[in-house]
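Shipment paperwork, digital attachment
Item: protein structure file
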Amino acid sequence: MSIVIRDVREHELDSVLALNNNAGSAILPLDSARLRDFYENAEYFRVAERDGNLAGFLVGFGSDADHDSSNFAWFKARYPNFFYIDRIVVASRRRGGGVGRAFYADVQSYAELRYPQLCCEVFLDHGADPALLFHGSFGFHEAGQNVMANVDVRASMMTKELCSYPWVHATYGDDLPDLPWVGRPRQSQPRDSRATGT
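Attachment content:
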């Protein structure tokens, strides 16, 4: 069956919270208030659906966001314009089935029209080799490391240049064409008309 990537729906937040908090030590836990903040403020908050079931989610923020993550702040202190993947979670039964790759293809398609760089982190203290290899296969490289003081977790800070951005920006500036597959940043639209990524 195919994987569908689409914007999260409000009634799915409890399921997203359960997915996050059952993901293990490679993902920081969330509470419902923090997840609600993501829902209301994240530029990109999409879920994967496979065989009619929720298979994962990805949350991301542009560099101008008012986001209080220490890893986001690390990137903000070094790069003027970027898109930050705050977290990606794939249900354990779906790992290795292409859901993560579908998310990264979708988020890159979204980000490369708006930002020159894609950023994320991989926690290094919990068997990071599969995640590092996954990100490396997508063209990410380590730009440094950060120890998250509030949780004492060391992270590999990863970046990827988005090679389409210079041409898109030189051609369209901030006025992207109104095409269904281009979509619009979540904050500039009513929730029911936000980008679908299709």
